[in-house]
Amino acid sequence: MQVPQTHIDMEVKSPQPQPSPSEGDFLSNILTPGSSLHPTLQLILDGAFALLLFVLVGLAVMTRGNVHLLALIVIELCLWASVKWFVHELQKVQSAGTQSEDHAKEKKE
């Protein structure tokens, strides 16, 4: 004799969306050392800063130059510049390290 299944016995499985290969690679790459030099991450950061600047400028126009929004715009621009400067310095250090390794290899030969 077979017992009919009730709704409690049945397990509902919904299909899980699988991330695309490039999405998974990018997300796993964010947490690795040196990921701040990845061009995709830099593009996303620039886009986020540009969008934030657009929103803040729009709000400043709508509020007729609210001093608080102008201060936020200055802070945002300084933060954006400091991130760009930091990435530039990382690239300089990385290229200097590569050049010194090449120079050391040439001396050994």
UniProtKB/TrEMBL annotation:
GO CC aspect terms: endoplasmic reticulum membrane
Residue ranges crossing the lipid bilayer per the database entry? 43-61, 67-87
Q: Which UniProt keyword terms apply here? A: Membrane, Transmembrane, Transmembrane helix
Q: Which residues form a coiled coil?
A: none
Disordered, as annotated region:
1-26
Query: What Pfam families is this protein classified in?
Result: Pkr1 (PF08636)
Q: Which InterPro entries match?
A: Pkr1
Q: What is this protein called?
A: SMK killer toxin resistance protein
Q: List this protein's GO terms for biological process.
A: vacuolar proton-transporting V-type ATPase complex assembly
Lineage top rank: taxon: Eukaryota
